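Support reply, case 0932

Customer input (verbatim):
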Amino acid sequence: MTTELIDDLLAGEHRALARVITKIENRAPGYRELVSQLHEHTGHADVVGITGSPGAGKSTLVDKMAAEYRDQGLTVGVIAIDPSSPFTGGAVLGDRIRMASNTGDMDVFFRSMSARGSLGGLSTATTDAVKALDAFGKDKIIIETVGAGQNEIDIVKMADTVAVLVPPGSGDDVQMLKAGILEIADLFVVNKADLEGAHRTVQELKEMIQYRDGGMPARVGHHGASAGGFDRPEEDTANGDDEDAWVPPIVEAVAKDSEGVQDVLDALGDHREHLATSGELETQARMRYAEEIRTLLREDTSALLEAEIEHRGGLDQYAERVRDRETDPYSVSDELLAPLEECLEENRE
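Our regenerated output:
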């Protein structure tokens, strides 16, 4: 059944793609085998992340971007991350109409997914869904996130290029960007640029890009800073003059009227070319896979430990012993991890 489903997906069957992503999102039996077999067919798509504060017009821009890409003959996959329902874990806004300009176009595949309480607003399932779209053959994959904030930097773990949307006249939003989003932006888009305050917002962003920490040039963009938990060589993270460093452009757009959308695509294309010519594309891929492995190890190890704790009668008994001062949390952790450590030592070459 798995082989047949994969064959259908690779053959361009949209129904098979939808079924695979459903299995991935639900963590259905066999989903890991599916993703493992799809991996060898990935690595061809251009993955773009779109983030920004609520009301910045992310969905509208994504809609227009997809339409422009289709006019160029490119196929598009869109994953929109929505807030999770506290009751079902599903996407609260999953049934909303987003892709009005692309309704009925089978070469624009749209999927709304739940953040599932992930710290960074993105779940592990999203990473796997991107792989499914990549293996399917989508030229462009766009990930639209819940909002913007320090936790949103997880998007760098799966996007080649990150565009941050900023509404005009949003002094508070620009100040918020300094808290962390600045570090992941490869492109700033001042959307709704026909509104009052747009020029001031552009100027504020220019100042942010040019200066930081008492006048030092800012290292911005997830290719040029240690963002999202990635470990980079020391020479890559140091501030200083770097003629090859990418300076995030600022594009003004009115997405609802399709104004400036092509400028956004041009800037995204320029950044993609920069990554390819500088070698950063391969570096990003290596870091991305390393982080994915770390994430899976954490999740799988946690699941193993939870099963072992349940087998021993549950965590409450340990908590009770800690409360009674019979032991302490560190000792409990050492006790539970001891069998795993012993097993690893026995199998170590």
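We compared this against your earlier run and they match. Two observations from our side: The first strand starts at residue 46 and ends at 52. The CA atoms of residues 134 and 347 lie 36 Å apart. Please reopen the case if you see a mismatch on your end.
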